[in-house]
Specification:
heterodimer, A: seven-stranded mixed beta sheet, B: seven-stranded mixed beta sheet, four-stranded antiparallel beta sheet
Chain lengths: ~120, ~110
């Protein structure tokens, strides 16, 4: 059974940094693109970032480019999202997603990031 | 970036009704569209991939169609459990983008 467990969310001040982690199990981790998708309170889904299975190819939404960095440690079956220069509009639940041929196949339960002073 | 425009934003229907949600892409995306269901407080779940592929475990009353720039999600006979918000997503090219969502209510 596929399991994705996010951690690292919390309250951070504007301009601050936070690193999210997602521990994966139940599938061959290196075979899949991993993505982060976020959802601001009461709003829709926003794709944030994606990373190829070998870690060589990264993709970002314009709204986070140059501020967020996605990475993975295939020895630990874990994907990360390093977030810097955080803004109030980054406040959201962040979902870790196993991506199969582009479709978001399996989702974690999400971790809440709140950017506020 | 490719924009995905969903309609309607809200929809109310009776149990047993046939309902259709539409998604229009700002440029051709072939058949690279997926549909998701999200219940309140829960993570989204994949329903349909590549326009019409039914994800394993999803009831057969859900179906998808379309190509190019216009796509539809159809629920053939609405059930009480289908009350949720539905999203389309294009994965023709990065950055991937979602529609704004359709909230489906059961009368």
């Amino acid at each position: 059974e596929v399991e994705l467990l996010e951690s690292g969310g919390g309250l951070v001040q504007p301009g601050g940094s936070l690193r999210l982690s997602c521990a994966a199990s139940g599938f061959t981790f290196t075979s899949y693109v991993m993505s982060w998708v976020r959802q601001a309170p009461g709003k829709g889904l926003e794709w944030v970032s994606g990373l190829s299975g070998n870690g060589e190819n990264t993709y970002y939404a314009d709204s986070v480019k140059s501020r967020f960095i996605i990475s993975r440690d295939n020895s630990k079956n874990t994907v990360y999202l390093q977030m810097r220069s955080l803004r109030p509009e980054d406040t959201a639940v962040y979902f870790c997603v196993k991506t199969g041929s582009g479709a978001m196949r399996n989702w974690g339960q999400g971790t809440l990031v709140t950017v506020s002073s | 970036d490719i924009q995905m425009t969903q309609s309607p934003s809200t929809l109310s229907a009776f149990v047993g009704d046939r309902v259709t949600i539409t998604c229009r892409a700002s440029q051709s995306i072939a058949t690279w569209v997926a549909w998701y269901q999200q219940r309140p407080g829960k993570a989204p779940q994949l329903l349909i991939y590549k326009t019409s592929g039914l994800e394993s475990g999803v009831p057969s009353r859900f179906s998808g169609s379309g190509s190019g720039t216009e796509f539809t999600l159809t629920i053939s006979s609405l059930q009480p459990d289908d009350s949720a918000t539905y999203y389309c997503q294009q994965y023709n090219s990065y950055p991937y983008t979602f529609g704004q969502g359709t909230k489906l209510e059961i009368k």
